[in-house]
Write a structure and sequence with these properties.
about 100 residues, mainly beta, Jelly Rolls, four-stranded antiparallel sheet, 8 strands, globular
C-alpha cells in the first residue's frame, strides 16, 4: 500500500520544511503544492534541495498557484527536502505527495 499525504501547512516569514527528504525512503513519485493562502499578498517561495527558503528567490507561488513534480518517462520526481517561506505571516500550503 502506498502512503499518501494530503494536508495543509502554515507558512510564515521564517523558512520551514514542507516536504522531507525521501532519498533514504521508498521515494516520492508525485508532489503537488498549492498556495491556498487567504490573501493575494501571501506569496510563498519554495526552495528545493534543503536550503533555507528566501522570499522571492526560487519557485514563487502566488495565491492559488501550484507546483507539481512527478515521475514520467525516466524522469524521477524531486526526492530531497523542500523548504518554504511566505512574504507575510498568513501563508498556507495544501500538499499532496505519494
Amino acid at each position: 500500500m502506498v502512503d499518501v499525504r494530503n494536508d495543509t501547512q502554515a507558512v510564515s516569514t521564517t523558512s520551514v520544511e514542507v516536504a522531507i527528504d525521501q532519498e533514504a525512503r521508498d521515494g516520492r513519485r508525485t508532489i503537488i503544492i498549492r498556495n491556498t493562502s487567504p490573501n493575494a499578498i501571501d506569496i510563498i517561495t519554495l526552495n528545493l534541495g534543503g536550503r533555507i527558503a528566501v522570499a522571492g528567490s526560487g519557485i514563487v507561488l502566488r495565491q492559488n498557484d501550484v507546483f507539481i513534480d512527478s515521475n514520467d518517462s525516466g524522469y524521477i520526481c524531486h526526492q530531497n527536502q523542500i523548504m518554504a517561506i511566505c512574504k507575510t505571516i498568513n501563508g498556507t500550503l495544501s500538499i499532496m505527495e505519494r
